[in-house]
Amino acid sequence: MYSRLSITIRFIRNNSEGKPNTDDTLTVRKNLTTGDFDVRYKDVNDGVSTKAHAPVMHLLMGMGHERVLRHVYLLLKNQYLDVQGFSQIQVDVPAMPRILLDASSMSDLYYREHVCELIGAALENLDNGELSREDTYASTLRSYNRARQTDAVPEYSGRHTFYDE
User: Fold this and answer.
1) pTM, rounded to two decimals
2) Mind listing the pLDDT tens digit for each residue in 79-102?
């Protein structure tokens, strides 16, 4: 069973020839059974859609945070080394707006590190579970009440010691 949410990086080719969907896609999902991450790379073979050139799916399974981040970093670094690289890269992580980057910006260490930092934060969010907005309030309230029962959260006395001292 996999997480409902995923991390997606879309590698967009310059589609001046009008070929249908020539974008490659990397998707990271959490395997809820093992607790690891699975990475799927869909290579559409430059948009060639013959039976012999169907999209190729590459799957890396059982990866931890560090391996996922290392893989993404090298993938981004390859973009500025590739003479027939992609024109744009779109990053989509849960609970944040998508970002669209010029693929040539991957030559700059700042951009590569920022994307990896963004992916790292998204991996942590996937690790910490998936809550809808409605569930978040109820869950937070339950956690707070449980903590109060164990005296982990002090009773509010109505007195602000900082101001009252």
Assistant:
1) 0.72
2) 888 888 899 999 999 989 999 999
